[in-house]
Amino acid sequence: MKKAILMRHGESLANIQNIISEDIRKYPLTERGMEQVLFSAEQLRGMKFDGIINSPLLRTVQTAKTVADVLGLQTFEDDRIKESGLGPYNGYKVENIPKLSRDDLGMESWDSQVKRMRSVISSYDGCFVLVSHALPIKALTASFLEMDERESFGIDIKLASMTAIDVENNKVLSIGTLLLTDRIKKIFSSC
Q1: How many structural domains compose the chain?
Q2: pLDDT, one tens digit for every residue, the chain (191 residues)
Q3: How many CB atoms lie within 10 A of CB 116?
Q4: Within a 10 A sphere around the Cβ of 143, how many other Cβ atoms?
Q5: Is 163:5 a contact under the CB 8 Å cutoff?
Q6: Residue 162: per-residue pLDDT
Q7: DSSP collapsed to 3 states, the chain
Q8: Of 4, 10, 86, 165, which residue is least crowded by CB atoms under 10 Å?
Q9: In which domain, by residue range, is 119 found?
Q10: Residue tagged active-site, from 133, 138, 143, 160
Q11: What is the pTM of this model?
């Protein structure tokens, strides 16, 4: 992959209910989530992409389809950019999860997320929008910044936000923005 915009899905019912979930067909986007996605999709107009790669979860499928409709692009589902593996805590409210490390909780490791996200960008040629989830986006972004999980603690990937990465030059151009700058739009205007 030459360049990538990593987009988090819009607000879903899971976000409203404060639930973490890797369930494939649960928790659709809310009306507000759809509005967030449309706003972000408009930011991508005029930029050149070869397609949209999305996680198989309903909230990312809906996000990708909305962006694809706005930009006239094809979507490709790829299991490697799915939500972080949540182990026995899938479907739990955030406040009911013990304050332990991901490893201690039996969740997918940080390194596993970095590895699978990196494998995606190695598998495609061109420029793509990747519609995924907060932690996988954060893990991939941090890997480009040569940061581990603890060093990247302050990186916040907001709903429907976009992180721009120049993969070829190993450079993060923006993190979790809702407004793409003219500089980024110019970089992505040719691919």
Answers
A1: 1
A2: 999 999 999 999 999 999 999 999 999 999 999 999 999 999 999 999 999 999 999 999 999 999 999 999 999 999 999 999 999 999 999 999 999 999 999 999 999 999 999 999 999 999 999 999 999 999 999 999 999 999 999 999 999 999 999 999 999 999 999 999 999 999 999 88
A3: 19
A4: 20
A5: yes
A6: 99
A7: CCEEEEEECCCEHHHHHCECCCCCCCCCECHHHHHHHHHHHHHCCCCCCCEEEECCCHHHHHHHHHHHHHHCCCEEECHHHCCCCCHHHCCCEHHHCCCCCHHHHCCCCHHHHHHHHHHHHHHCCCEEEEEECHHHHHHHHHHHCCCCCCCCCCCCCCCCCEEEEECCCCEEEEEEECCCCHHHHHHCCCC
A8: 86
A9: 3-187
A10: 133
A11: 0.96
Q: What tokens appear for 132 in the block?
A: 């995924």
Residue 125 falls in the annotated catalytic set: no
Backbone angles phi, psi at 5, to 5 degrees: -105, 120
Long-range contacts of 120-124 (CB under 8 A, 24+ apart): 120/1, 120/53, 120/78, 120/80, 120/81, 121/1, 121/4, 121/167, 122/1, 123/1, 124/1, 124/50, 124/53
Spatial CA neighbour of 9 closest among 71, 81, 116: 81
Return the CATH number at 156. 3.40.50.1240
**Which is the catalytic residue, given 8, 9, 80, 102?**
9
**CB–CB of 5/164 below 8 Å?**
yes
